Amino acid sequence: MLCQICQNSTISFFSASLSKRYFYCYTCEFISLDPSFIVNLEREKAQYENHHNSLENEGYVKMFEDFMDLFWDELPHKEVNALDFGSGPTPVLGELLKRRGATVDCYDKFYQPQTIFKNKTYDLITSTEVFEHLENPYQTLEMLTHCLKPNGIIAIMTLFHPNDTELFIKWWYPRDPTHISFFTCKTLKVLGEKCSLKISREDGKRVVVFQKRSDT
Known about the structure:
Layout: E1 11-15, E2 20-24, E3 31-33, H1 41-48, H2 58-71, E4 81-85, H3 92-99, E5 103-107, E6 122-128, H4 137-146, E7 148-157, H5 165-170, E8 181-182, H6 185-194, E9 197-202, E10 207-212
């Protein structure tokens, strides 16, 4: 099977503890779940219903405040027009962006499914804890890039995998049945380059901040 990010060859490995097969790309370090193991939409939504995050959760809010601090000073101006892509049942990040003065659209395929972002462009697009759920992350990032103004920012949060198949099998992240795509910073760099995006900031753990080239 070819890697859907860089189109190079992958190797497959099976996790007996998870009873699932994965594909790993040595070139860009992308790991993807064998499509035959992907859960259906009903099961996926049921998993999300277990999430109970809110503005009252101080740790959750601080995570987002730290996330925003990584890129806020890089925005082209302070009158920010933003899209929170994959906002979840409670759009905490969207509310925090509004508190910083941004105008915010929210989209979530289950909870706010109206594609409000079509035919619009944004200074900032955020996507937190979303890309690990995507069957085709390249297609999604390419679509989001078309919604981004020149020099605009796309900030992605997804926990980076350990880049070792044995450690990956022991890792807690794949145990969520809705997590099907796994990245390192290198994976996201390759993915961004395909979409004319360059990395401006990254934290080495879970966040990459892309900037769109001004000539695209």
